[in-house]
Amino acid sequence: MKLKNKLLSKFRGVLKNEYYFLIALIFGLIVTACQDVKRPQIPANLIAQDAMVSVLVDAYTINAARSIDNRIIVNNGVLLDSILYSKHRIDSLQFAQSNAYYASDLELYKKLFLKVEEKLKIEKTKKDTLYAQYKRAKELQRITDSIKGASLDSLQRIYPKIKRDSVKKLLEIQLQKRDTTSLTKTSIQ
Questions:
Q1: Looking at residue 175, what is its pLDDT?
Q2: Enclosing H/E stretch for 159
Q3: What pLDDT is recorded for position 165?
Q4: Which one, of 107, 122, 108, 106, lies nearest residue 52 by Cα?
Q5: How far apart are CA 2 and CA 14, in angstroms?
Q6: What is the DSSP letter of 48?
Q7: 87 and 58 in contact (C-beta within 8 Å)?
Q8: Residue 42 has what DSSP assignment?
Q9: Residue 119 belongs to some domain of the structure
Q10: Side-chain half-sphere CA neighbours of 160 within 13 A
Q11: What pLDDT was estimated at residue 125?
Q12: Which domain holds residue 148?
């Protein structure tokens, strides 16, 4: 019994110590989690919101280009980030500071990204429309070429010794014959 009581008292002491440790750990986590996060100050060369939207649209377009086939870009030595910065007349530090400032205000950053999303949708619609027009023009060209090829091939069957380049001359000769026959018929009457 004495041994059993001794073990129980030690076990209670260990549980009591673990309980205090757990409370201290939770308190420490709460204190460190509630630290004061300071917003970045407005940079001296802050990019305006509309310009920032344009920069972000171009940045996302560049990232999309990289994801399609980066080997071509790298092999040709194209520096897409440099193109972005020179197009908007900014540098990487100015972009990073402006991005950090806008990101510190989540509501403002959300509005910026909604504008970016809207512009990207407009660009996608434009590109899709142009691509559809291109495909239609290619299809019309293919049909036109096949019609020309079919008429040339049918004439080739009628006149097998005539080459395709001289088909135009042959048609001109036939037209001249018709004109001369119609003229002689009208002059006889």
A1: 76
A2: none
A3: 54
A4: 108
A5: 18
A6: P
A7: yes
A8: P
A9: no
A10: 1
A11: 94
A12: 137-183
Q: Give the burial string for 57-68 (b: 16+ CB within 10 Å, else e).
A: bbbbeeeeeeee
**Structure-token match 């806008």, residue found:** 102
What is the predicted pLDDT for the residue at 151?
A: 60
End-of-domain residue from the set 104, 120, 150:
104
**How far from 146 is each of 28, 70, 119, 127, 160, CA to CA, in Å?**
80, 38, 41, 28, 20
Contact of 119 with 57, CB cutoff 8 Å: yes
pLDDT at 47: 93
**Residue 89 included in any domain:** yes
The CB density around residue 98, as the number of other CB atoms within 10 Å, is 22
Walk along the chain (189 residues) in steps of 10 and give the mean pLDDT of each run: 63 63 68 68 91 93 83 82 90 92 91 95 93 92 76 58 61 74 55
Contact of 43 with 94, CB cutoff 8 Å: yes
Query: What is the tally of structural domains in the chain?
Result: 2
